[in-house]
Specification:
By secondary structure, this protein is an alpha+beta fold. It has 2 helices and 5 strands; from the N terminus they run H-E-E-H-E-E-E. The longest helix is centred in the C-terminal third of the chain and has 11 residues. The protein starts with 14 loop residues before the first helix and ends with a strand. About 20% of the residues are buried.
């Protein structure tokens, strides 16, 4: 993940809002900030079980926990992320991680004047 390093210098992950992405059984979590075209993209990628493609829209609903009920949680994490992104004129994109393993969550921030796009599920 070497495209662009965040220029702000420091980063912080709130474990209450990062949810299962930081669940220790899944090993590493990669966080990056990149510039893609005219967007700035915050990426969080884990090596956990991922989210099946047919559940990605549903996991954005509050309290939806998905088919993997073995993982602790309340089903609020991605719903909160989506709403925060929308308040900042960004949108949330969920996809599989590298090689189809884990989850890649991207918050895509648009240039001024193009805000208001909805979340996209791939």
């Amino acid at each position: 993940m070497s495209d662009v390093a965040a220029e702000s210098g420091t980063g912080c992950v709130n474990p209450h809002e990062s949810g299962n992405a930081l669940y220790p059984a899944y090993g590493t979590v990669d966080v990056a900030v990149r510039r893609k075209g005219n967007e700035v993209v915050l990426e969080v990628c884990d090596k956990g079980p991922g989210i099946p493609e047919d559940e990605r829209a549903q996991v954005l609903e509050r309290f939806y926990r998905g088919s993997n009920q073995n993982i602790p949680g309340s089903g609020l994490g991605l719903s909160i992320v989506q709403r925060i992104a929308e308040r900042h004129g960004a949108h949330l994109v969920l996809d599989s991680g590298p090689e189809g393993k884990g989850l890649l969550a991207q918050v895509r921030f648009h240039p001024v004047g193009t805000a208001g796009l909805q979340s996209v599920v791939l």
